[in-house]
Amino acid sequence: MSAYWRAHRLAQVGRYDEAERAARDGLAAEPGDARLLTLLASVQRLRRDYAGALATADAAVAAAPLFADAHAERAENLIVLIRARDAVPAAAEAVRLAPTEPTGHFVLARALAAAKDYPRARAAAAHGQSLDPNSVEGLLTVADVERDAGNREAALSAARAALAVSPGNPYGRWLIAMLDAERLRVRRSMRALRDVARDNPARADIVSMTWPIRGVLNGLRRGLAASAALICLLQLIAHWWWPPAAPFGRIMSAVLATVMAGFAARILLPAGRLPWRCLRLLPTLMRRADLTALALTATAIALLYLYAATNWWPLPLLALALTPLLWLLSLAELLGAGLDDPGARHALTDLATEFRDWWQTTKKDLRAAWNDPQTSTSSTPPSPPPAPSAPPAPGAPPAPGAPPSTPSAPDPASGLPSAPGGLSGLPSAPGAPPSPPPAPAAPADLSPPGAPPAQLSASGAPPSPPPASGAPPSPPPAQPSAPRVPPEPPPLPDDGAQ
Has residue 492 got a pLDDT over 60? Predict the structure, then answer.
């Protein structure tokens, strides 16, 4: 018997340690055997060594890039490592390499369901079922997809169909037990979970068998927050607006506390002693969080009963103040469950590594920016260019330091320079006389204070008066251009000259 088939049969009967040794013995003789590498990755995944299984699946893909089973096994490991976005391309590659194999379609459906893409997951599972209608793996894949999508009836039908083909399938039995738990069929669910754990003691799911306790805590956490908040609101209404709301609040406190206590009894009593026995086997953080949450929840319900009996107003406030602690304990419970699961633990480790790398890179960049101020100053945006100043008036002296102005091109039609921004080149009105050239503007009086007044300019403009004594000299005002004066008509000839 070859090493591959020996390891394969050992894995089928659940002897994973021997199967791994047989696969490694075969790989010692043939290190590049893609089938043995894929089988070894599958055995490692069943032993919950997800990081090692992914590394082995990567080696199988590198050894045989066109081997579809290697890509499918790699996608399976990415799913359990909570890397659904990476699992979808790997499963799609397996489907592309072997489109007639139903296994690749089922793996793709599970990857898409893990990525919350339920329509495509249903389509992939249906395609796989069309290739193998009686496949137990396909029926359980459909049940998983429908359960994740919230369709419990469809999931239950698919799981029962899988058990009709293979009655002893442990995963199908576990799935039906959890679907019964979600429908609050407590006794039937706990009985099925106990039978599955008895038949498969090496793979007993302890966390699942404590679902009654965790389910009660989850429900009471929400109910207690809403109940305490409502009673505190009724207290405020009674104090500020409507006093009869106080006795109504006491009645509501007693009713709500009774409802929550009845809900806990409805689940915990049919479950029996099995959840409490399994509670001691939970991870340390998860167990302590659950026990503390049970104590705080019982205390809060007792506070509501005491308020209904004594009408002491701080009691509902104390019950409301306990609800944030319950939510923090729920986060601690999730963290404890994640640390116990190898896939979630590996995902948390990757997240912590990414955060540490990001923080180191950020500190390095900040230190470089602090030590090199030129980099920070060069990153400031340049100041906008100054707005263009208005053109000076004709005849006004140029501003100090200003470059000499360039004369504009003469207008060929009128012989005058065109105004900046004006409409030059337009014809004049028909019959109108040509406009004469403008008179030159009078120069500005730039004489110092106290100097004799300047003579009258040739244009006839009066000189500016000197400033009063003791007054600061004012800047010369802008000189307006002289008005356009039409030329005098030539004298008419007298009759004598004719």
Answer: no
Quote the CA–CA distance of 398 and 170 in Å, as a whole number. 98
410 bridge partner residues: 417
Under DSSP, the state recorded for 422 is S
Instruction: Please determine, looking at this structure, whether the domain spanning 134-205 carries the CATH number 1.10.1530.10.
Output: no
Residue 443, Cα to own-chain centre: how many angstroms? 72
CA distances from 244 to 218, 238, 248, 293, 305 (A): 33, 6, 7, 34, 19
Query: How far apart, in whole angstroms, are the C-alpha atoms of residue 168 and residue 14?
Result: 14
DSSP 209: G
Q: Taking the chain, what is the end-to-end CA distance rounded to the nearest angstrom?
A: 146
| CA atoms of 399 and 207, how far apart (whole Å) | 88
Which region among 210-219, 233-242, 273-282 has the lowest average model confidence (pLDDT)? 233-242
Q: How many CA atoms lie within 13 A of 14 on its CB side?
A: 6
What are the domain boundaries of the chain?
134-205, 211-353
Joined together, the tokens standing for residue 402 give: 């200003």
